[in-house]
Amino acid sequence: MSASNGVTVSGTIANEVEVVAKATRRRFSAEYKLKILREAEACTRLGELGALLRREGLYSSNLTTWRAQRRTGELGGLAPKKRGPVPKAKNPLAAKVVALEREVTRQTARAGRAEALVDLQKKVAEFLGIVLPRNGEKG
Q1: ∠ Cα 17 21 24 (to 5°)
Q2: Could you tell me if 77 and 44 are in contact, meaning their C-beta atoms sit under 8 angstroms apart?
């Protein structure tokens, strides 16, 4: 091995490659946020708050945001938020519209079958020579 941060392999130097894991966004639980806010409020001496933030790897903006969430009562804001698009609110009448459309389709098919039967009866009567009364006539 050579002293130049490399590995010697049969007379050549191969540089070491460091593989870094993909960075992930930090997510803070509601309990953690409340714990840090309590600790921050307990800091009374000069420099204690900065030491707390450095120890936890936080920014002062985190405290500002969390305090505002706590003040407005956004308990959901203190819990981790679900990522992704917000699901659309369902229209309460949508299910009724679908049911009515299905009913209209069924009734239309039934009316078509009834008209076909009437046409068949007329053709049979005509074939047999039976005179059928028209609408409103008495036969």
Answers
A1: 155
A2: no
Based on the number of CB atoms within 10 Å of its own CB, is 39 exposed (0-12), middle (13-18) or buried (19 or more)? middle
Question: What is the rounded distance in angstroms from the CA atom of residue 1 to the CA atom of residue 16?
Answer: 12
Contact 27, 38 (CB under 8 A): no
- The rounded average pLDDT for each run of 10 residues, N- to C-terminus, in the chain (139 residues) is 53 70 83 90 93 94 90 66 83 91 97 94 89 72
Domain ranges of the chain: 26-78, 102-139
Block residue for tokens 């990522």:
83
- pLDDT the model gives residue 4: 52
Whether 2 contacts 8, CB under 8 Å:
yes
